Amino acid sequence: MLDLKGYGPALAEGAVVTIELAFLSLALALTLGLLGASAKLSGNRVLTGVATAYTTLIRGVPDLVMMLLFYYGGQVAVNALSDYLWETRQIDFFFQFDPFISGVVTIGLIFGAYMTETFRGAFLAVDVGQIEAARAYGFSRWHTFRRIMIPQMLRHALPGIGNNWQVLLKTTALVSIIGLTDMVRVAEEAAKAERMPFHFFIPVAAVYLLLTAGSELFIKWLDKRANVGVVRGN
Amino acid sequence: MPDFIAEWLNENDIFTTMTLMEYWGGMVTTVQLVFLSLVIGLVIAVPLAILRTVRNPFVSGPIWLYTYLFRGTPLLIQLYIIYYGVAQIPGIHETFWWAIFREPFYPALLAFTLNTAAYTTEILRGAIIATPNGEIEAAKAYGMNWLLRMRRIILPNAARRAVQAYSNEVIFMLHASAIASVVTIIDLTGAARNIYSRFYAPFEAFIFVALLYMVLTFMLVFAFRKLENHLLRHQRPANS
Predict the structure, then answer these.
(1) What's the pLDDT score for residue A14?
(2) A179 to chain B, closest Cα gap in Å
(3) How far B74 CA lies from chain A's nearest CA (Å)?
(4) Mean pLDDT of B152-169
(5) Residues from chain A contacting residue B77 (CB–CB below 8 Å)
(6) Mean pLDDT, to the nearest integer, of B70-84?
(7) Which residues in chain B belong to E strands, given as ranges?
(8) Fewest CB atoms within 10 Å of the CB: A1, A23, B60, B178?
(9) CATH number at residue B106
(10) B-chain residues within 8 Å CB-CB of A199?
(11) Separation of alpha carbons B77 and B54, rounded Å
């Protein structure tokens, strides 16, 4: 049996942190993606411009650099704000910008940009006739969006969401660099202390593999369900 | 140098000639690391992609496993395994390999190369199996053998189909290379982290380096768009 030299519980806790981080980032990314895609398709120049600037900027910068900027910069910004509030209004405000929050914000922002593109493509794939029909029935814009566009676009978005999720899951490893005690961090500390890199990193790699393989199966199942009503030509 | 730039450089404490040279050194390291791993990775990926399409599972199976493992785990862990792992190989300290792998650059290069080769293999494989059957039949009808078909028909057309996905992989690699700074390499991100810790100036240090990465990224995007236009020029509408 695998002997983890007493690091077993810490590694398991780290794995939970990794999974929490991944799910929270996914939630943020999906929200931002939906907002971004709606902004891009809104026809409003300002909104389109903002969304385009967002996706372009994010795609030009490495995830690690952004994470370092948010983590170190975030704390400096909070400190400055707290000084300002104390000096001007005597308000005692402070919070610690911890690695977990920085990780969720950074990963959420990055994958929000990718989700924007996924959702945009999926919205465009919805048959125009469906939207016209909804309008003809007197649905408001919001109603059309919520009742017609979203349910029909999800089917097209699912493969893209799946791909993004797989990449997102692997990106969570980076948060160990800014000090989050996820499973990568625990494995690194254990590997250094015990001088056994393979012994600790390979099980962690296996957990990632398990997570990616499990998600792949789940997404396939979801995809099958979402496409139940679709007749596929050969 | 225009006056206002010279003046601005004199006025601030962070962007001195020394720190700018540090960024420049980091940029050289990043470009070297990314360029070398991409070139070596591509050279490995072409034969692997061809072998991956072979029907014999004893040939394609191990390659599938290799790409599956490297695409299913984070690059950071691959880097840690290679960086910390090579020092643990028994007897390596006595061989000439130790002189090479003691430098963090080479373990990082190895990790990046293996990673990009795995992704590129799958991209190329996808492009190869998408070859229209008619092209292969036509090549066979002309009496081309397997090697000639591969060289003249399948690979050139697969390259056209793969170039877009490959350009994404190149940019992904440029961004992923930022983790080299974790194993003490002074690449662009490493330079930024040094400058941050020296001046405690996160915004200046990291926003500047983000801009540099952005410039590199958009240069690559532009170059690949040119390449794509060149490779797909036969598909352009007649009057444009």
Answers:
(1) 86
(2) 12
(3) 5
(4) 92
(5) 173, 184, 187, 201, 204-205, 208
(6) 92
(7) none
(8) A1
(9) 1.10.3720.10
(10) none
(11) 30
Task: Tell me if residue B103 falls in helix, strand or coil.
Answer: coil
Judged against a pLDDT cut of 70, whether residue B221 lies above it is answered with yes
Interface test with chain B among A18, A56, A57, A68, by most B beta carbons within 10 Å: A68
Indicate the helix (H) or strand (E) that contains A170: helix A150-171
Does the predicted interface ipTM exceed a cut of 0.90? no
- Note the pLDDT of residue B214: 94
Closest chain B residue to the Cα of A191, Cα to Cα: B84
Among A60, A76, A198, the residue with its CB nearest the CB of B213 is A60
Per the structure, how many domains does chain B have? 1
Interface test with B, best of A21, A67, A72 (most B CBs within 10 A): A72
| Cα A199–chain centre separation | 30
Q: What's the confidence (pLDDT) of residue A87?
A: 83
**Contact in structure between B72 and A209 (CB atoms under 8 Å):** yes
Would you call A4 helix, strand, or coil by DSSP? coil
Please indicate if any CB of chain B lies within 8 Å of the CB of A76. Answer: yes
How does DSSP assign B153-212, residue by residue?
A: IIHHHHHHHHHHHHHHHHHHHHHHGGGGGGGT--SHHHHHHHHHHHHT-HHHHHHHHHHH
Q: In terms of DSSP H, where are the helices of B13-154?
A: 17-52, 57-72, 75-86, 97-101, 105-129, 133-141, 146-149
Is the predicted pLDDT of residue A23 greater than 90, yes or no?
yes
- Closest listed residue to residue B74, CA positions, set A105, A97, A64, A1: A64
The token pair that represents A30 in the structure block: 């999906």
A43–chain B Cβ distance below 8 A for any pair: no
Residue B67 maps to a domain:
yes
Q: Name the residue type at position B186.
A: I
- Give the closest of A72, A197, A209 to B88, CB-based: A197
